[in-house]
Amino acid sequence: MTSFDPLRVEHGVGRGGARHGMQAAVAGTQSMPAGTPDAAGPRSTRSPRRDRRGRGLRGPLLPPGLPGAHTRNEAFAGYLAAAVSRLAEVCGPAVEQARFEATMVPEDLEHRLELVRVWGAEMVDDPTGSTRRDARGTAVITIHRRPIEARCPVPAMLPDLVYGAVVEQWAELTGLAPEAVDPDYHW
Q: Which of 37, 70, 147, 178 has fewest C-beta within 10 Å?
C-alpha cells in the first residue's frame, strides 16, 4: 500500500491490520471484520476517475468551467463572440445587423495556395477573413481560424488577433479604414 491511499486505521492498528484479524476501514465506509470478503479489494480506496484495467479515464480531466476544458473551436467561437460584442460597443447597433461566422480555413484555399506558388506570399491578400452578402442581402463576415492561429506567436494574443480580424473585415464592409472603425486598432 502506498502513502497516498486514504486509509483510516481503527483501534491503533498499522498497515496490514486486516491480515492479523483486526478491523480496518477505508475513509467514508464502515469497518468490516477481517474474515469478510471484500469484492473491491484493498485498492477500492482510490478515486473513481482512475484508469482501471486499462480502459481509460472515467471522467473529464478538467471541470467544464475551466478554460482548458474547451476545444479550440469552442475557445475561438468565444473569442469571436467577445470581439463582436466589443465591436458593437465601438460602432453601435449596426454591427448587430451583420452575421459573423468562424471557419477553419478559407473556402478557396487551393486557389490561394496556387497564387502563392506563382506570385509569392507578398502578392496574395490576407486570408484571415472574408466579407460577402447572402441571398437576403445580409452581410456575412467570416473569420478563418487557422490562419489567425498560425500568425499568433503567443496563445494569449489570440483574442486580440481575432478582434483585429473582425475590425478589418468590418472596415472592408463599411468602406472605412480600420483605424477609423476603432482608434485602438493595431495589427
A: 37
